[in-house]
Give the backbone structure.
Amino acid sequence: MNYRRSITLLALCTAISACNTADTTMMDGGITLKDNIVTLHVDGAPDALIDSNGALQIGGQIVPTTPAQHGLLMLYFQNVADVHQTGTNMGKIGANIGAKALKDSLDGKSKAEKDRNAEAGADQLKSLSQNICRDEANIKNVQDQLAAQLPAFKPYGNVVSVGDVEDCKKDKDD
């Protein structure tokens, strides 16, 4: 293997490894996904935990739910997991863009070729950012339904605000 390919391969492996994390944090720490558990953090209330099966624990106690509430909790978890997956995909695309740019530079590609590759990657990232905004809006929608239907969930009913969803859409458009 030649020197340039070794450097490119090393850069790619390093970048992908840095993006390969099992944790996601959203809403300034209000929502975390770790070890297949979504945790909601709000001031003045114990953490609420939602697992992938839709079970809700608050303050270490299982909260009984109706089938409809249980379904909403599963949707909440899935939407957070979708944001995590999209973020992971964005990280991989970013790493690929960086590795491609490095390889193009080492291979002496023209500025036009480099720009085309960068624009293709940017288009992919823009599309994925739209997915994150959609998933964030879905989280807000499910959160509102849970707060209305499940009294124990009310303290967590503002983790994602209308402003957060609007800011995401605004940032995506910029």
